[in-house]
What does this fold into?
Amino acid sequence: MTDWLARLAAECRATGNAELLADLDALAYQLVETTDDAVGHALVAARLDAVRSELARRERLHAAVPTLSDPRAPRYEQWRDLARQVRERHAGILDLLDGSYGPFRRRGSDEYHGPCPHCGGSDRFIVWPGPTGRFWCRRCGCRGDVIDAYRLVRPTADFHAAVAELAADVGLPAPEAEAKRPPAAAPATDRLVLTSFGGVPIGPTAAPASESETRP
It folds into this structure.
């Protein structure tokens, strides 16, 4: 657990200000969504605490040395707002994932099942399409929204590239991107499982789950 928290802190330190601010919104949603999933809820809460702690650290540094970047500067808040609008308006999450990891088969009125990009299987990975679309794996816990889906399909894309392209899809202009920070401790695809959105590590510590389980 100590190693996991250290990786989480290192990843937050390597994440840009705009992405950290956008994470606050995504994780607040995830915290509510995982209320009935004790493990997922605890991991989302840990991620949220790490993001808040890193933002607070940067705010203290800026207060002590005003020439350092202010994480709450308008240019970062603009990206946060744009990411929020993309999550609310973009309806293409199923198309993104189905093209690379499908086929996904419809179950019920509003969800599609298929193999998980991380841990395989046949129908453990669930996508809820449309605006505010989400995905979640019943076994490894991988979860996210349309921005995460874009970065899962295009692992070389950073936060700004993902948000800018998705924003263009729905007719929203993107502000100027902030300067790149050093690479994160974990690749973006691992991040969905290990740190960001309530997942559990893949491997011996992953909780087993049957293909018949349902959304938490």
User: Anything to note?
Assistant: The chain has eight helices and five strands. Residues 102 and 113 are 9 Å apart (CA to CA). The chain has a mean pLDDT of 82.
